[in-house]
Write a structure and sequence with these properties.
- The complex is a heterodimer of chains A (439) and B (328).
- Chain A is of the alpha/beta class.
- Helix content of chain A is 40%, strand content 17%.
- Chain A is globular.
- With 328 residues, chain B is mainly alpha-helical.
- Chain B is 71% helix and 4% strand.
- In chain B, the strands form 2 sheets. A two-stranded antiparallel sheet of chain B has the order 1-4.
- In chain B, helix 6 packs across helix 8.
- The longest helix of chain B has 39 residues, at 6-44.
- The radius of gyration of chain B is 24 Å and the shape is flat.
- Classes of the chains: A alpha/beta (439), B mainly alpha (328).
- The interface between A and B is large, with 46 and 48 residues.
Chain lengths: 439, 328
């Protein structure tokens, strides 16, 4: 103490001198880094462009052989009221056979993103590791936006996302592949006093939009009653409707608002869709963080209505009080249940028109039994890998994930209520996966 | 001039260098914040501070103003978050400060010596609870309790007071205010206790000799003496409340409009940043990220000012009571 204070002026000048030197060094370093960084970016872009144009030549590197023996024909017959426990006898599983490489180099694959996809990746990671002991996968639940941006900047190898990249973002990052790995869906849940959770209310996109923009405020509103059977309509109470929205930015919000936009020109023009939207001001509107938060919030308020990912269907319908879930009007005008067969019909309706880059919405699909809020869960992967052996590892991992024998089997998908990819989509996936190249 | 040994030279420059790294870090943070928030500052200007519509319009088209990209139809106004931050912290001060002062007075003036240490320990332990744990408690226990018990009673019996009437909701103003109050009590109580303990015994004995009661000694000697320090402690608590993120994000109710009653949902600047960060990455124009960073700049400036003021007061409080020995 005394030593320093005996010569305060020299101490001050020492700090000042060192500070100035450090500032100069850092400024120079930052400048140099910025210059290098700029060069780096331009290199990446040029690599990317060449990568996109020269995809054919890259197939030689792949050590995996893919055989697609026949295209899918949907043999599933749906009844509108089929229950969620229905299991699909997928014709897809018998038509695609993927032979995987037997050994992989030692790698750690980082995955982050969609909280809806996370539980599935968490099931896949140990199973893949059991088959390929050299590869470790670290899944993280951080949100679709983080998944996208982490894949774009290369901080992770796989970014999980509910929505595919928008045109604007895809143009900025042309080297990112959007690879569907499973099919998810979303239900509309409610907590209406006096209504048994086993009774499914019917909803159209128009009525849901009217609830979420505040023009329908009570459960016994004539517009809601008009959609129900006479006995259900008579039992609807005069309770105020409490719409619940996601407080955190979420792919679920994007799916729900996209459905509202598809069914309502007015909603599309004023609110639109996105992970975060400017919700209309509704008196009493509540919010939940994450799908779990949506369930908790809805359980608290009698009169609530909310949109929740299908992996939470069981927890929503078995809580206290149990929440009911709706039958939604599809494009054909039928009210359909969120059953696996109905989700499958929606996918099968869109599958033939899926483009090569697989960026397509499955929502509000054609078909008498198609469930309207359905989506691909995407793995965002850069086609240019720079770590030795990583490209082969990623190709094998993704092929394993979409394979009906492994990752897309009922063993994993049934646990999260997801539906397997149809064979034609698996085929498109394989073509995209083969574009992943690197040393 | 005597030759200094090499070890002393190394010691001198090494410590100075590490000292500078901390200062430098603040500068780098400031530079990064300015760089990233610039597009938002430039495009939205004063509207950022005076409007309430926060709409990223993620499915719009990219348009340009002064060469800066943003989404058509988007609008960024921070007033809702600004108000929510100040109002929730205000409730926290209103509820937390009287409690903290009661704790400090009890510990320094009333409590028998042997229970002072355990009670102080327990109060300071409250500061060690991670905010996410408090938030979790707020989410699962406090929210439903407010919704089903406290707020209906307040609405029924106090409904004649403006702001106390209307629909009741679990998450919002009251939940955030209560959680924040819990968080600032340990800070305000422990600093106030330290300042009060500095009151010279001669003054208290003098007051006693003049026939003052214990309450009169506290009110007329101890509190006036410790006033500056207590004020500093309160401001320091305010700084904590303003910047708190996680606990508030969990119980604020995520409002995107100004509250209409005491039961309304709110949103704070820190909570908005935490909850929206993921979605901001899906904005192709990058404006959403920039607007969140501008929010961070505003919050940083507010908390910095509050902390500087608080430290000045607390320091002065100690200087005055301890004859020039600076303790803070």
């Amino acid at each position: 103490m005394k030593k320093i204070s005996s010569n305060p002026r020299s101490a001050v000048s020492t700090i000042a001198v060192v500070a100035i030197v450090v500032v100069i060094i850092v400024v120079a370093a930052v400048g140099a880094y910025a210059a290098v960084g700029m060069n780096k970016t331009s290199t990446v872009t040029s690599v990317v462009t060449s990568g996109t144009t020269a995809t054919v030549s890259t197939t030689a590197v792949s050590s995996v052989t893919n055989t697609v023996t026949s295209s899918v024909t949907s043999s599933v017959t749906n009844t509108v009221t089929s229950s969620i426990t229905n299991t699909v006898t997928s014709t897809a599983s018998s038509t695609v056979s993927i032979s995987l490489t037997s050994t992989l180099p030692s790698e750690t694959v980082l995955e982050t993103g969609s909280s809806l996809l996370y539980p599935l990746f968490n099931l896949w990671a140990p199973a893949f590791n059991a088959q390929y002991s050299t590869v470790k996968i670290t899944p993280a639940s951080s949100g679709s936006g983080t998944g996208q941006s982490s894949a774009e900047t290369g901080t992770v190898q796989i970014g999980g996302s509910d929505p595919y990249l928008t045109n604007a973002i895809q143009l900025t990052y042309p080297y990112i592949l959007n690879i569907p790995v499973a099919v998810s869906a979303q239900q509309v849940d409610y907590n209406v006093p006096g209504l048994a959770a086993s009774i499914h209310l019917n909803f159209t996109g128009q009525v849901l939009a009217a609830i979420y923009n505040g023009s329908i405020t009570t459960w016994n509103n004539a517009q809601i009653k008009a959609l129900q059977s006479a006995s259900v309509a008579a039992s609807l109470p005069s309770t105020t409707i409490i719409p619940v929205v996601r407080s955190d930015s979420s792919g679920d919000t994007s799916l729900f608002t996209y459905f509202l936009s598809q069914t309502n020109p007015g909603w599309s023009a004023t609110i639109g869709y996105g992970n975060t939207v400017n919700w209309p001001k509704v008196n009493g509107e509540q919010s939940g963080t994450g799908n779990g938060g949506m369930v908790t919030t809805c359980e608290q308020y009698s009169g609530c209505i909310s949109y929740i990912g299908v992996s939470y269907l069981v927890s929503a319908t078995t809580g206290t009080p149990a929440l009911g879930y709706a039958y939604l009007a599809n494009k054909a005008g039928n009210f359909v249940n969120i059953s696996k067969v109905n989700i499958q019909s929606a996918v099968n309706a869109v599958a033939p028109s899926t483009p090569a880059d697989e960026r397509i919405s499955l929502e509000y699909a054609a078909g008498a039994t198609s469930y309207p809020i359905v989506n691909f869960e995407y793995a965002m992967v850069s086609r240019n890998q720079n770590v030795t052996g990583m490209a082969l590892t990623l190709r094998t991992l993704l092929e394993w994930a979409i394979s009906p024998q492994y990752g897309n089997s009922a063993t994993y998908l049934n646990q999260v209520n997801f539906v397997p990819l149809p064979a034609s989509v698996v085929q498109l996936d394989l073509a995209q996966i083969n574009e992943i190249t690197g040393p | 001039m005597p030759k200094t040994p090499l070890t002393d030279q190394v010691y001198k420059y090494l410590t100075a260098l590490l000292c500078c790294s901390a200062i430098l870090f603040i500068f780098i943070i400031a530079l990064v914040l300015i760089k990233y928030s610039y597009p938002s500052f430039a495009v939205w200007g004063l509207n950022f501070f005076t409007t309430t519509v926060w709409n990223p319009a993620l499915n719009g088209n990219i348009i340009y103003k002064y060469g800066i990209a943003y989404m058509s139809g988007s609008s960024y106004g921070m007033l809702v978050f600004f108000f929510g931050t100040l109002a929730s912290s205000g409730i926290a001060i209103l509820l937390g400060v009287p409690t903290s002062l009661a704790i400090a007075i009890f510990l320094t003036q009333v409590a028998p010596r042997r229970i002072v240490a355990p009670i102080s320990f327990l109060v300071e332990l409250l500061a060690g609870i991670p905010s996410v744990v408090l938030g979790f408690w707020g989410l699962l226990v406090l929210g439903p309790f407010l919704l089903h018990s406290l707020e209906p009673a307040m609405s029924t019996y106090l409904g004649w007071i403006p702001l106390f009437s209307g629909h009741v909701y679990s998450y919002g103003f009251i939940a955030s205010g209560l959680i924040l109050a819990l968080m600032i009590v340990p800070i305000v109580a422990s600093i106030s206790r330290d300042v009060m303990a500095q009151t010279p015994t001669e003054l208290k004995e003098g007051a006693k000799a003049l026939g003052s009661t214990n309450w009169e000694i506290t009110r007329k000697v101890v509190l006036p003496y410790a006033r500056t320090g207590i004020f500093g402690a309160v401001i320091l608590g305010l700084g904590r409340a303003l910047g708190e993120t996680m606990a508030v994000a969990m119980v604020s109710g995520f409002a995107h409009y100004l509250p209409t009653s005491l039961y309304s949902a709110i949103n704070t600047m820190a909570a908005e940043m935490a909850l929206s960060l993921d979605g901001s990455f899906t904005d192709p124009s990058g404006m959403y990220v920039s607007a969140l960073v501008e929010l961070a700049v505003v919050l940083l400036v507010i908390t910095m000012i509050v902390n500087v003021v608080a430290r000045a007061f607390v320091k002065q409080g100690f200087v005055r009571s301890a004859e020039g020995v600076i303790r803070v």
